[in-house]
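We both want to read discrete structure tokens more fluently, so let's practise on a single case. Would you supply a protein for us yourself, any chain you care to pick? Would you write everything just below, so we can both look at the same thing?
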Amino acid sequence: MLTPLDIHNKEFKKGLRGYDVNDVDEFLDEIIRDFESLYKENLELKEQLMKQQDDIDRYKTIEDTLQSTMVLAQKTAEEAIINSEKEAELIVAEARQKAEGIVSGSHDRVTECLSRVQELKAYEKQIKLRLKGFLTTQLQMMDDGYHLDGVEKDGVEVIEEAGMEEVDEMSVTKEIFKGESLESEGE
């Protein structure tokens, strides 16, 4: 490609009847000025084009970085959701296990209490039978006219002599029932 300097330094050979040298020089000077202006403009446009291409390359790099960042953020969010769902499932499973343990423990406690109630009912029947036997014996002794010597204060000594075992069992039974009601109230 020609440069303005090439045009300026170009010399033509002179012939016999050639062009007027002054006209040619003036025209060449005009061409040099226009060509020089176009040449500078072309260089400036090439520089701008290179600069814009660099900007485009930089923007493409930024875009690629943003896309990879978005993909990474999306993967991280998905992993966080999956992890939180797994953690929630574990918490629910643990809560169910604890609830089952509590229900099972309560069931065992109820079974134990029912068993104890059955034992106490059986003991109550036994005490009633003994008390009935004791009272029957006392009534029979009264009907038979059986009297004991040394009766004190409202017949207390008579009861003690006639059936101490039965009276002791009755007081023990009272204590047991008191203790049971105290235990169940405390719980």
Q: What stands out?
A: The helical segments are 4-9, 21-143, 156-186. The mean pLDDT is 80.
